[in-house]
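Hi U.,

Before I forget, here's the chain from the pilot set. I'm dumping it here mostly so it's searchable later in email.
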Amino acid sequence: MAQSFIPEEDSAYYPPRARWYSVFFYFGNNLRRRLALDRLALPREMKIGELVAGFFVPGLAVWFRGPRLWGRAALTASAVLFLIFIVWLGYPAANLAFGLLVSLHCTGFVYYCNPLMATEPFRSRLAFTLLLLLAIGLLLYVPARSFIQGHCLTPLQMNGQVVVVQRIFQARHLQRGDWIAYALHDEEQGEAHNGGAVWVRAGMGLGPVLAVAGDQVVISSNTFSVNGISHPSLPHMPGAGSLTVPENHWFIWPNLDISGHGNVSEASISSTMLDMASVNATQFFGKPLHRWFWRKQILP
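Structure:
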């Protein structure tokens, strides 16, 4: 007698397979046990996942605690303050937005922890708030701000204006006519030239690349040429001279404010600026953006 076909079905008692992300839960639970965090008893209104997420994301703790209207307002305000910080980087408005964002983040997290601190005395709640402000500021915001301004975008004060410089640009892609920001000297305090007759303070320079490695620069009265192409002379250029731009260097004429103390000749100033015009690749700081959002950056 032929046996009828019966489709196989998974048993309801068969345990499901472990997912690919199960190892993270295992690692988290093991770390929680080792740090004795499993012995900490949180109020039932609080969850460890919400606590961690609210610590790292500004405004999210208010969303978890509710009401939802306040949560939406906190998240929106956090996004707006972060946007103001980025758009007005280098201006007082950015610093104000940064401080308000830290305050909002801390206030929202304290609000979420209210069930935990409700029965504590005022001094304990005040100390908790201050410690939390230091933790959020020093562990999250200070490193984030340092990373953004040290590796991505840096605002520079040039001739009374703010110029945003991108740090991720590769120096090997520079061409003639590109503007760059560069360190004037490797020394932090500055450097003496011409036997100490001219002193150049440490700082940042900003200017266009006039010639690249291998180019021939010839300077004469009222003009200078790069590979035979003539250009008008720039301030404090010497009356005569020539050079070949070395490897891993650019020719950038300095744009400096000069203050005189004593009897310093024009020849000493021109000679100093000619020495500084050969910029090493190690001095490269970044490339200024011509536009930052809707603002056109006016380069000197």
